[in-house]
Structure formats: structure tokens, C-alpha cells
Automatic annotation (TrEMBL):
It holds the Pfam family PP-binding. This is Nonribosomal peptide synthetase TdiA. GO terms for biological process: antibiotic biosynthetic process; fatty acid biosynthetic process; secondary metabolite biosynthetic process. Residues 598-675 form the Carrier domain. It comes from Penicillium digitatum. InterPro entries: AB_hydrolase_fold, ACP-like_sf, AMP-bd_C_sf, AMP-binding_CS, AMP-dep_synth/lig_dom, ANL_N_sf, PP-bd_ACP, TesA-like. GO terms for molecular function: very long-chain fatty acid-CoA ligase activity. Residues 1-14 have a biased composition (Polar residues). It comes from the Eukaryota. Residues 1-22 are annotated as: Disordered.
Amino acid sequence: MFQSRVASPFNFTNPGPGKDRKIIKTEPPLTSVLELLQRAAATSAGITFYNAHDSGKSNPKRISYQELLDQSRRDAAWLQNSVLDLQRETVILLHFDTHEENIRWFWATTAAGYVPCIVPKFAVSSDRRIAQAEHILRLLNSPVILTNDRMACAFNGVETPSLYRVDDLIPISTFSSPSLAPVVQNQRDDDLGALMLTSGSTGFSKAVCLRQPQMLAAVAGKAYHCRATSEDVFLSWISLDHVVNLVEMHLHAMFLGAEQIQVATERVLTDPRLFLDLIDRHRVSLSFAPNFFLTLLRERVSHPDFEREPPVWDLSCLRCVFSGGEPTVRQTAVDLMRSLQHHGARPFICAGYGLTESCAGIVWDIVDHTLESLDGASGEFLACGLPIPGVQMRVVHETNGMKPAAVGEEGMLELRGTVMFDRYYRDPAATRAAFTADGWFITGDNAYIDEHGRLYITGRTKDTLLINGLTIFAVEVEHSLEQARIPGLTPSYTLVFAHRPPGAFTESYCVVYLASYDPDDDETRAQTTDAIERIASLVVHVKPAAVLPIPRHYFEKTSLGKLSRAHFRRLFENGTLETERAFHMAHLRAYRQVHRQPPRSPTEQTILDLVCTHLSTDPNDVSVTTNLFQLGLSSLDFYTITQDLHRIFHAHLTLPDLLSDPTISGLAHQISISTGITTRTAEYDPVIPLQPHGSTVPLWLVHPASGNVLIFTALARAFHDRPIYAFRARGTRPGEPLFTSMNEMADLYTTALLRTQPQGPYAIAGYSLGSSVAFEIAKRLESSGAEVRFLGALDGPPDISPLVGHLTWSEALVMIGHFYELISEKRSLELMPELRVKEAEMALNVILGEADQRRVQVLGLDKRELTQVTEVTAGFCRAAGGYVPRGKIKGRYGCGIIWDSGRS
């Protein structure tokens, strides 16, 4: 057992690592979380917000801690006076999509004396979203829900009698209010400070009870351990529903009276260099970055474009970037820090370990390493270091949990101390299972402790996956595969377990299954493998490291019908399954090679290598005739590939060019046209095959007003045995005439549909304005005697023309600006009347001038591309101007909302 040498983390003097750092004055011990904000309000420090919805040229928003305290008291008064039936035990569920709103209402709830619970975004799939929401509402015992108009749709289809939208309330501001609510200490009989949900953004969560003394012990212990002072500047881009941001960054900075920068997650992930830009701009000294993000940074700063035009950064201010959530790969850390040395960066990556149950990091390697010492050390991963004050850790044998492991011996990690939680909310069974008989928390992680007391994490024992810093239930991946009814799988004999390939920058996972096909049926083997990879990646967002059919005798179920993940992981990693794996891969490769069309030109070879590198796929397994959507390309992948092809071949390609034949050979053909080698002869064909294979009824998808079909790519990946087709609007390629009426569009699409699928039954769905076209296609099919088995309207009923039929060209441009996330929804509503009658050139300059420039770069947009998209949208709107839906269909009709459908 190893424990910290400091008994009390509450009341101390912290001299810091150097004499020039300020000393924190010893003050009376804190007794509540609210006192953190009250004490910080006496300083001049505060929070700077960079929101995702801000335009690229807007200034970040800063508020002081005093302003936040004043606002929290105003909002607390609103809660107490406006929310009905508040009880002492009521939990306030916070569901927002910005750091600013989550922080505002966290403190409002705390000031009102209630317990906040910040929840992450729910699943995009309606069934999973509803199941998650209903589970959380049951778990929290019918909480009050605070949200905004953008996020309220997450609760569609769920009974929510106590849901409040707060959009119209006064935002955080600098003016004083004469009627501030009195500060109320916790209304509850217990000492709860917050509830945090486990499992990240997926799965059926447990709610961790963070007690106020625990939270205060944690921030004090963190500050002492990393020698932080009020001079430090904290930067966080992790979402507030994660304990790393809430406690490690937000409350930690507040405890010190230090400045903090809160940046929208998506802004940093889409442009990792922004992380370093902000460190330089705000003189950041402390931040957090899991290993997968360190890998992204390393790749970005080693990119040829970076080397050609290196930015002018001064990173000498950066003391420590905490890296946890998953083991930190030593070589990744060393390579990144070495590449940033000439920007003044000292060794700054501090690996660590923590959990939601421990208020985030409780072990950090706060040592003044040199790059040479790190590079020369043994082991694939960095040491996690020593524990902070307020925690004890021990490693015990896996087979005998009461027997301590020797120094350097691997075993199961267990924790206890003042920074540890003591229960899950309203779940006594889970609480009992989480602790040993003598009161130690069972982390579910394998580890060892060296002779210096430093912790090393070696793997997982729990039924979870930890990938790119996100915790995912393995059982949810299994359920998705079972529900997909993949023909080659034997029901109830599919297992998912964690696996970290040697040298990988994050944990991965494997899928083993009992095959229902003959061992020599290589076609079904390949189809089953492809389907498993596609369905699993929808849940985990990355493909499995291995998909392996294994014989029945390995599937030894318990009396309750369970399979042991740890058992299968051992079999896989110790080589027991190598014979089965070699047999599977040999047959899979042989089948793919027979059916593979290899590159026929240097251009095809270059494109193949580019696509496969982007997807981490073996080029030898990909045919130049393979539909790229089947490989798992997202809409943003297509935009990125377009820019890469332009850089390599100096060819200007539009999305219609890519979509006309989304294969390697198709892209090569479009490049030859763009560079003048080949003359374009192909006539307009509206059919885009998103998922061309399958034996069930095909699904046809009609685009929204913009003509963009990429919004359907994530949906297409969810189907393994159903062909998915989308229609491309005429006019998306320069020189093509726009449609003049809805009837013309419906006639042409119906003809193209029948040419591709001559026989019914038919299934059609339209998105937004496309639902009107889908309705007209269905009517034409039924009038010809065909069966329309399903007609769907996504995010809009068939009669949507009154909303868009009278839009001007400039208003259509504003709508596209919002749809493409160049400007915020709020700004689009402001610009609609301002630009309604403005000339196109002026309107384009306004939108591109206010647009988030990083988003413009990601999408590869310029004035010509944006003009083309707007022409299609405005033309669609004109065509819909006189449209009135009439008639009805016999088939099944469904109308719903795609939540967050534009992201993939």
C-alpha cells in the first residue's frame, strides 16, 4: 500500500517550485463548494469562453468570478421562484452544449442549495437516445431539467413534466441587480455537491455522488501536488459533463483564484493547433490532454504544411499538460515535446491516473524530467507518478484480493481516502459491488507500483472500453451487433473485449463471434467481417483491431449464460487463438484479392494510399472499385480528402465530382477531367450509392434544400444488409441547370429510381424540404401500381414550402451559413432581415467575413463553392414557392426529427 505523506489538504501554504511564484496565504478551511466561488470572487480573476457557435472573428467572452457569483444568485432566485414543486431532494439535470451555460447553471443550482448533474449529449439513434434519457430520468428520480432550444430535442419522445428552456433569461452580464437571491447552503440532509454520470456519452450510466468535502479535498490536494498558485492560467477543452473539466480544471482554478480558459471541444478537435495558439495567446501554464489528442497534435506539428510555415509561438509559459483517461504512450509524448522545443516548450506532459469516482486525477507524475531521461526510460507508457494528498492506493492479486502484490508485480488497483466517493446515487447494489469488504474501491484497472511508489497502469479488468479518453460499455457494442441480425453471426455468441495493440496510441477492442457459416464460405466470411466492422464503428467511432470467428468450444458460458471478457482477452493476447486468426485472415485476404481490382495508374495508387492512410486501412484489402462510403468515410472525411487531392494534383474537385462515382477509380477519373486529360462526357445522374449492397428493401433518401447528400453518410453506415441510395440535386455541379419546379424534380428522380430499382416494394425518406419531394415520388410510384412500403419525413413534414418558398438569394445564403455551421443560429436570425434584399456579393462578403475561418478551412469552402451551394438552395426554394401537397399514399408514413443529424 502507498499513501501520501500529507495528512490534511485543506489548510496549507504552497510555495511552488520557485521563489518567484506567489505564496498562497493560509485561509480558514472551506466548508462548502459554494465558498470556492465566494472566495474566488474576491480576486480579479475569471473565465474566458470560446464557444463553438461564435463566429471566427468574434472576440471571446470573459466574466470575472464576481460576475459569475452575482449571476448565480440571480439565477438561483429564478429557480426558487419559477420552478414548480422543488423539493429538498430534487436533482437539477443540466443539458447544455456550451461551457458557459453549463458553468452558469451549475453555480445557480449550487447557490440555490440543490444538487446539479451535468449530462453529456445522448446518442443520435432515436431508440438509444430515448432509452438513455429514460434511464437517467429514472435514476435521478424525475429531476428538473434545464436546457436550451438547441438541446431540448434530446428529450423528444420522453415524458418530461419538469423541463425548462432557459434561452430567454438574461445572460451573464456585468450589470448589478438589486434583488440577488440569498446564498443558501445545501437544501439536502446529506453533503452532496454534484452528481456525475459514468460511461461517457454511451451506455446506461451510474451516477457518482461527489460529496462536498471530497471535492474540496480533491482540489486542495491537486493544487498542493502540482505546486499551483494564483499565477497559473488553466485551459480546458473537455466537456463539463466530464469530471476532468469540472473538478480538475474549473474548480481547481477557482480554488486558487486563477484565470481559466474554457474552449468548446469541437473547436480544438477540428483544429488541434488552436490548442497551442491559445496557450501562447493566454500564457497558459496548466491544461489537460488525453493521449489520443497528444497524437493528433504530434501529427499536426509534423505535417509538411506546418514545417513550411511554422507558427510563431512562445510556449515557455507551459508548465504541465496533465495526460490521463488512458495510458500515455512514451514515444508520442517525447516526439511531441521534442518538436515543440524550438517554440520554448520545456518537458510539459505529466501522465496521471484518475476516475470519476476520485474527482479526476489523483496520481500525477510531477517530476522535472528531461527529454533524454524520458526517451531512455523503459516501458511503452509513461509512469503515472505519486498520489496527491488524500488518497491511498494498493495493488492486490487478481485471484486473491486480500493478498498484496509485491513491488513491481502486476495486480488489481484499489483506492481509498478523503478524495474518493462513497456511493452511487440510488444504486446500493452497484455501491456494494464497487468496494471490498475492508472499504477499498475496486477500480477495475490492472497496475503495479514500483520501488519509488510510482503507479503504472497496465490494462483493464472491467467490462468497459477506454478509447480516445471515452469510456464505452462493451455490452452496448455487443447489443448493437446482435440487433443488426448479421447473417453470419450466431445469436448470443458475440463478445467484445478491450485490447491495446503494441505501439498503439490508444486502447482498441476486438470482436470474437461464433460463425453460422461454413468455414469454406469465404464470401459470407468477408461480408460478416465488413458488417461487424461497420456496425461496431457506429458505436465506438473506430473500427475494431480484430474481428475473429472462433470455434464453439471456446465459448464456455457460466450457469447464467455469461462469457468472460478477461478470459477471451488472455486467449487472444497470449497467442492461443493465433491458429484461428491466421486461418481467418488467410481466407479473408484470399477472397478479397480475388475480388480486388488493383490500381491501374499512379493516380489511382496515390488516391488509394491517401484514403487508406486516412482510415488506417490496409491498401491491399481495398479495391479501386470499392464504394468509399462502405469503408466508413464521414462527411468531414470527404471534405478533407478533397483538399488533399487538390494539394497533390492541383485539381479543383467539387463534392458532386466525388459523389458521382465514390470509388478510387471514380476519383481518378474526375482528376483527369479537372486537369484536362479527359473530357467530361457523363450526363447528369442523380443517383448516389451510399451503400450499394444488401438483400432487403433499398432505402432512397432525398436531400434538403442545399442538395447536400453527405448528411446521410452516418445513417447509411448503420445498415449492413440494405442498399442505401441518395439523390444529388441538379445544379450542384457548375453548368448544370437548376430545377424549375417540384414536379420536374420528382419526375426525374422517379425515373432514376425506377432505372436503378425496377421492382418494388419501395422505401423513401426526405430530409427537410426533401420530404416534399419524397412525398411526390411516393405518389408517382403508387399511381403506377407499385407498393410504397415506407415514406419518411426527417426534420420536417411534406408541406415545408411556406417556410422557404419566399426566401431571397441572400436569405438562402444565410440559411446555408447556419446549416454549414459557419455562423451561429442566433447570428443567422439576426442576419436574415439585414441581408434580405442585399446583393449577392455583399451578402457573401458578410457571411465569409463573419464565418468561423477554421470551419471554412475544414470544409474547403471559398466564394465560388458557397455561391454554387446557395444557387442550388435558392433554386430549390423558388421551385417550392408554389408547391402545395395534395393527395395521400397507402404506405406507412413516419415523421421525426434527426437530432444533430448534420454531424458525422
